[in-house]
Design a protein that fits this description.
With about 220 residues, this protein is α+β, with helices and mostly antiparallel strands. The chain is about 55% helix and about 15% strand. The protein has a 6-stranded mixed sheet with strand order 1-2-3-6-4-5. It comes from Natronomicrosphaera hydrolytica.
Length: about 220
Amino acid sequence: MMSHAMKMLSLGVVLMMGMGSLSGCQVQRLQEERDALWIQNDELQDELNRARAALDQSEADRRELLAELERARGSRRAEAEPQQPARESGFRDIAGVETIERRGSVTVRVPGDVLFAPGQVQLRQQARQTLTDVARVIQNEYPNQTIRIEGYTDTDPIRQSGWADNLELSLQRSAAVHRHLQEQGINPERMYAAGFGETQPRGTKEQSRRVEIVVVLQE
């Protein structure tokens, strides 16, 4: 018969084997739980990415709707305000500009793409000649009138050019035109520059990028 000592040794071996088996089950269960958590985490991350993409698209759609609304408002304002081509003004002989006569003012509208490279505020060489022609007409025909120089941009947000926003860009561009007109002899005391940024878009982005030189006839 097996001695008592041998019985105790056999029982101990069995118990140790049981404990080892139990620990192995626990480890496997933990590994399975870990793997399940990794899968769940990946699924949640995918859901988060989809939610962020949907939010970005919603924001883009919102901006585009606002831009369309502003363009529509700008068109309605333009239609409501009586205007016609200036009848007797030397501005009409300047190529590449649009001249509009409103109640109490004459506006020379110069496309921004004619004046500046994208995102820049340095006048193109050809633009300098155009503005010199504008200054000549102002000196000859409107020597005592106040001159308001208005800068406008399209609704695209600033991304790479380094300006804080479209308002700053429009201000810098109107200031550049102001300086050139001053260099051509127009008294700076009767000129001032203003920037409107993207707030008054026209029919297209190209049309929205512009500088308007307004001769104030009635103050």
